[in-house]
Structure formats: C-alpha cells, structure tokens
Amino acid sequence: MSFIKKVLCLLVIFLVFVNLIGRETIASDGEITLKEAIDIGFQRAKEWNVNATLTSVNSVDETMGGSRGGTGKRFKWFMIFIVPDTEDYVLIGISEKKITVFRPSKQTPGPTIPYDEIKLDSSDVLQLAKDKYGLKQGKGWATGYHFTLDNIDGRPILTVVGNDRDNRFTRISFNALNGDVVSAIHKLPYGGGLISKRMGTDNVTKKGMAITGVVAGNNNLVVWGDKKPTQFSTTKQPFIEWSQNNGETWTELQANNYVTHAWFDRNDQVYAAREKELWAGITSKSKGTKILSLDHMIENIDHSINNHIAVLSNGNIYYTTNQGKSWEQAIVPKPFLVVQISDNGDLVGLTEERKILQKTNDGWNEITMPNSNDIPEDIKVINNRLFITTQSGIWTRNLQEENWSKIQVDEIVVRLIKKGEKLFGITHRDEAIYSINTKDERKSEKVFDDRDFIVWDVDTMGDTLWIATIPNYSWEEMTIRQRR
C-alpha cells in the first residue's frame, strides 16, 4: 500500500472516531444537574411572571443514553413555578437544556422553595447517598438515579432515588441547606410464597418468592416464578421446579428463560410457555422440544383438557389440535385480552372492549350476554362449556347452545383460573378463592381467605389446595446516619 493510501485510510479512521466521540459528547453535554435545570426554568418563568417562585422539581425517566443520573445529571426535568398569593402556576419541561414544555394553568398553590438558600445540588446528594448507603442505579423502572426537590414541613428536601444493595427500590432525602439526612427508606417485600392448605392447616414454603404459577398433574406438582423478586420485576432469578412427593422436595427443571405458563397433559408431560416460545416434555435433564416459536411476545395462552392449544400474540391466534405437530393461524378482529379453546377446537376470545367473540366458519360472532347490563370480567372454557364472571355473578352455557345458567357466588369474582376440569374464582384484590362447581349450578365454596397474601394462581392435588402468591411491598426505614 502506498504512503498516500495509508494516510488516507488513517484519516478516514480518525474522522470516524472523532465523529463517534462527538456524538457521545453531545449526548453527555445534554445532561444537566437539578440546579442547572432550575436556572434554565427560572429564566423562562420570570418572563412569564416576574414574581414566579419555585415549588417543585423532578427528573424524568428516559432512554436517551448518557449517565442516567450517574453523574447527578439527567436529560429531562420537570418543574413547577407559582405566583404567590394567586392560583397561577406554570409547568416547565426541559430536555437537553431546552424548554420543551411550557404549560400555564391554575391550581391551589403549594409551598415555595427558598432556592437562593439551597447549598446542595443533585450531584452532591448522589455522592452522599452512595457513601452512606451504597445506593445503586435503578433498573427496569425509574432507571438510573432520579432526583426530586420539594418543600416538606417548611424545609427544602432534595431526594435521590435508586436501588439499595439488594436491588430494592430506595429513596434517600437530604436537607438541601446543610446535607443532613432527613429520611432513608426502601421498599421491602412481605408475604409471597407457596401455600399448601390441607384440613384447615396452612403451610408456607418458598417464603418471600414470587410464585406466579402452580399446576398439579396426576401425581406431580410444578411451580414457577422468581426467587428474588423486586417490586417492579418478577424475572430477576426465574425458576421452574417439579415435585414428585407432594412438595416435600423439589427438582429444578430445565428452562432458559422465565416461564409465563405451564401445565401437564394427560400423560403428565410438562408444557411451558416462555416469552416467545412454547416447549413440551421439559424435565430436570432436558429443556424439552420447542413446538412453537414466534416473533412477538405471547400475550395469553390456553389449552383444553384434550390438549388443544391456543396462543395469542400480536393480533393473531396460533392454535393446534394435534399437540403442536402443526399450527393454524387466525387474525383477531379486535384486540383480545383472553383467548380460550374448547375440546372441539372452538376459539373464544374476550376483547379489550369486554365483548365475547366466538370463531365460526364465517368469521367471528359476538356471544350476547343473558343480562344486557352485565360486563364480562373474565372468561374460561372447560370441555365445551363457557364460563363468564360479571359483577352480578357467574354465567355459563354450552358453546353450541343458548340456554344460560347462573352460578351463585357470595362475593364478586373478578378473575377465573381453570386447571383441567377444575375452576376457581378470585375476588377483588386477590384475597379470596372460590372453588366453582363446573358440573352443575350448585353454590360455589370459599376455600381460601387471607388478606395478607396476593393470590396469583391455584390448583388442587388430592385433599391439598396449592396457592401461588407473590409478595407485597411496603416502605421501611433504613438506618439514618447524620453527616458529621
């Protein structure tokens, strides 16, 4: 290669490198601290009204790269200025040092912040929070570090939000005048786990875990969920486990990702749905056989007693009547919340508009409710029978007939769970479980009622009721250490 060609190649590489650096610099330069954002906002607020006074500031989540608050700076900020002794206020939004939102309105004014007296900036309190509490960046929700400034009990309080050492949502607040810690709180889980209820005795195992599913086979039990859930994620340490001795010991099954749904067929073969895939024959030594792979997320899934399968994804239903050897596809006419498939292969869906549609050779026909005032909360199909829960009770009829029956329930059931031929109803706030007789219209039976647990799934095996629950979260104080 000639000298001139070498120089030209090096020049091209240099220009590309400089361009990449320049782009990253531009992205970083667009981030500003809380006080820098206030200065920009104040200038515009004073143009709006010379008496404008600050009352609150907060950073805004975004996906623009940069440090995500790691330097005490963010790309986006919102703040409110008021005119004292009036109802006038203005909301100002800033993105990359430019005002992108300017929205005057009226409301009861909040307390003002003595901005001129504030000594600390977002970068200062971030360093204090790291030093004192080992604060880490938030992940999944409220990504990175976030900052707020408010007047609380007559003091300007500057708060930094992130995660503690155990990745739990954390808020640490400082007096913006002197840096003293005002409060340090994090959200801790309580509850959660797998409950086995037998003859009036409750036993909780896998405590603190988010158990998002449980299913019983002929002699086996499978549970799945997250071993280390946070308030905003149950996919941190996903697992799926199998027990062959009524939950006394567990064996982990092979799964490359978190499981969203699982079931046994009549031969006790395990099927499991993941984000975009469906697998069959999962064991402790094998991840099984992939029988369906999609380009988009699986939004909802159902299987009949004879193991017909229907999968809802991106406006399409993929369904099989031969255990996944071949699949057919149907386009949904409206966005669906729920898809169901019968033993005959009939498809039924609940739309986002709370309409029930059944697929026929001519397309999709609406199933009219027996009471025009009833709005479906949830639907399930067992064998070839449709069950609909509403505010007035549970309605049922055969898919090929039009004669409705009503099942009496003492409370309003908002969610239905089916396991084979068994049907359960979950009440508001996931507190109580009803066992619903699917053979006739006899009164349903309450089988669980405990406000300390959030019920996610349920099944029975023999005389034992298995209940999958997830944790709830509450703010708890961390040890407060004042600055010396």
Sequence-ordered SSE layout with sheet pairings:
Elements: H1 3-29, H2 34-48, E1 53-59, E2 76-82, E3 88-95, E4 98-106, H3 122-133, E5 146-152, E6 155-163, E7 169-175, E8 181-198, E9 201-205, E10 210-216, E11 221-226, E12 238-243, E13 251-252, E14 261-264, E15 270-273, E16 277-280, E17 289-293, E18 300-303, E19 309-313, E20 316-320, E21 328-331, E22 336-341, E23 347-351, E24 356-360, E25 363-366, E26 378-382, E27 385-390, E28 393-398, E29 405-407, E30 413-419, E31 422-427, E32 432-436, E33 445-449, E34 454-461, E35 464-477
Antiparallel strand pairs: 1-2, 1-5, 2-3, 3-4, 5-6, 6-7, 7-8, 8-9, 8-35, 10-11, 11-12, 12-13, 14-15, 15-16, 16-17, 18-19, 19-20, 20-21, 22-23, 23-24, 24-25, 26-27, 27-28, 28-29, 30-31, 31-32, 32-33, 34-35
Kindly state the mean pLDDT as a whole number? Answer: 89
What percent of residues adopt helix (DSSP H or I)?
10-25%
First-residue to last-residue Cα separation: 66 Å
- How many helices does DSSP assign? 3
Number of strands: 35
Structural class: mainly beta
Radius of gyration: 29 Å
